[in-house]
Amino acid sequence: MTPFGTTISPYPFCLDLMGAVQVSAEELVRLAVAKVKRGSLVYTDRFKSYDGLVSYGFRHKRIDHGKRFANGKVYINGIEGFWSYAKGRLLQHHGVSVERFPLYLKELEWRYNHREEDLFELLLEVLREYSRVANNG
User: Fold this and answer.
1) Hey, where are the domains in the chain?
2) Running DSSP on this structure, what letter comes out for residue 110?
3) Closest Cα partner for 7 from 113, 92, 79?
4) In this predicted model, which residue has the larger pLDDT, 15 or 74?
5) For labeling, which of 35, 39, 82, 86 is most exposed (least CB within 10 Å)?
């Protein structure tokens, strides 16, 4: 399973989980085409698989992680912020099962996107809404 993260400012971080361990360049570009409006400016690291983005109508800027995470207005700190947050949280568990790893990542996506809010109240609202739907369905 390969996680594919996007953040479209000012919107929250979005995580897609793909089945393959190794993902082809074509699959990465297909996801970008499906998730991002053509003509958008896309910031990535220097991973070679992103080379085809320009031919699909995206404007593309790269950041070399070895040198810095920003270059003027070009930055990938939103994505890096999520992965730093996720790694820190996952380390607390001293490893997670392969079967449950996607669930942990999706939970962390939700927590990250709501990190400035009262998570308990948000969770109660989700449960209330689920209860309304379940009782009316």
Assistant:
1) 2-136
2) H
3) 79
4) 15
5) 39
Evaluate if pTM is beyond 0.70. no
Return the closest-CA partner of residue 5 out of 84, 65, 59: 84
**Which DSSP category does 12 fall into?**
P
Q: What's the pLDDT score for residue 21?
A: 58
Does residue 1 sit in helix, strand or coil? coil
User: Strand, helix or coil at 2?
Assistant: strand
Which amino acid would we find at residue 6? T
Cβ-in-10-Å burial (0-12, 13-18, 19+) of 126 comes to exposed
- Give the N- to C-terminal CA distance of the chain in Å, as an integer: 33
71 falls in which pLDDT band (50, 70, 90)? low
Question: Taking phi first (over 0 means left), then psi (-120 to 50 degrees means alpha), and beta for anything else, what does residue 72 get?
Answer: left
Judge whether residue 128 has pLDDT over 90: yes
CA 4, CA 18: separation in Å to the nearest integer?
7
Range 107-128 average pLDDT: 90
64 and 47 Cβ atoms separated by less than 8 Å: no
